[in-house]
User: Fold this.
Amino acid sequence: MRAMVKKAKGLSGRVKVPGDKSISHRALLLGAIAEGRTRIRNFLPAADCLATLVCVRALGIEVERLSETELIVQGQGLHGLMEPKHILDCTGSGTTMRLLAGILAGQPFYSVLTGNEQLRRRPMDRIVEPLRRMGATVLGRDDGRLPPLTILGGNLHGIEYRLPVASAQVKSAILLAGLYADGPTVIHEPGPARDHTERMLAVMAKGQILNFKLQTSNFRVQGSKLSSLDIVVPGDISSAAYFIAAACLVPGSEVVIEGVGVNPTRTGFLDALREMGADIVVENQQEVSGEPAAEVVVRARGGHGVPPLRGIEVSGDLVPRMIDEFPILAVVASQARGTTVVGDAAELRIKETDRIANTAAELRKLGACIEERPDGFVVEGPTRLVGTQVNSHGDHRLAMSLAIAGLVAEGETTIEGAECIADSFPGFEKILRVLSSK
Ligand code: S3P
Assistant:
């Protein structure tokens, strides 16, 4: 599918973005192993989360869909899953495969996880190795490096594990397996990867999990019963990021995004934009189901021909806090004065696609000045972008970033392969139209 975007004159309005992808996955998975009925509101009905829904049902869990975004999961407790009759298809969702592998490592039955071509190229040794250490039998292609994965779980022991990379998917897989281990599991993380699993577990375990510390680099988990929960999923800040960037870039814009999750492990992009000089205010913060949510107000700074934003350096702990926002950061950087340097972000090469190579290649087609580095990229700005035909490479985050670039590019930008936007953000185009039409 092709999408066409024209240069915009100013975005304005109040909008909501769909539910958070990471939290929607976790609500389904933890709901399945909790005791009794978990109600999920504002669930994200995107392809990735629907893959988790299909897998959870294949494990014998009843999930009632009251509407597109409201579900009831009939949890069967930690030991209530059933051996699936068929392979579990995670489609393109790395979160589904890695988190589910953690739960399946604790099950005394046989299961096989696979996915589409894109997912079958992504590294799984990062979860296979610790899950094997805990006692699960996990096999995969290339000695467990690549999917499909075959898991025969059960009889796990707790481990103490130092994560080699700041990855929430790996951390969560080990935490979930840790619920089934006969002793405590301790995880040390090198940086602040998103902590949604820990937060949801803390609420569902009602204080039963001992020594469970949030916002530290040391987690401890020990098997305990999980209680069902009413979960209201906040809006996805990674989806909001595209409109926040657009409002910073298109002169005369003023956009309010309501009910967005502002968990500090996810707000790195807001910090980066503020450092670049953007006008962003977070208001009316509230706690919903253990997660902070708020209103994000963004105003374009008045121009007079001088670019209002300036280049910055992004590295270290800021990287995991905005790990999905680098393609859109590159777009913003192309309109900022000076140099933006991204380092410590080699992880971007093993996301849905190689996001360093593909972001650089596609933005260059529009006229941006961007160079790859092994662990990041360098952008010189500002550059005048000119609309042309670009390609998503099947990566939803690149497709949406290119659409925002199209709002500032002269003329018309055509994005080939825009259908992948549905992997994380159904309704993206509609919201963009609403904001552009005022
Ligand atoms: C996710 C964690 C991140 C992120 C992905 C979702 C999660 O991946 O890129 O989109 O829900 O845990 P890593 O944990 O591999 O960094």
Notes: The two ends are 26 Å apart (CA to CA). The chain has two domains: 2-19+234-436, 21-232.
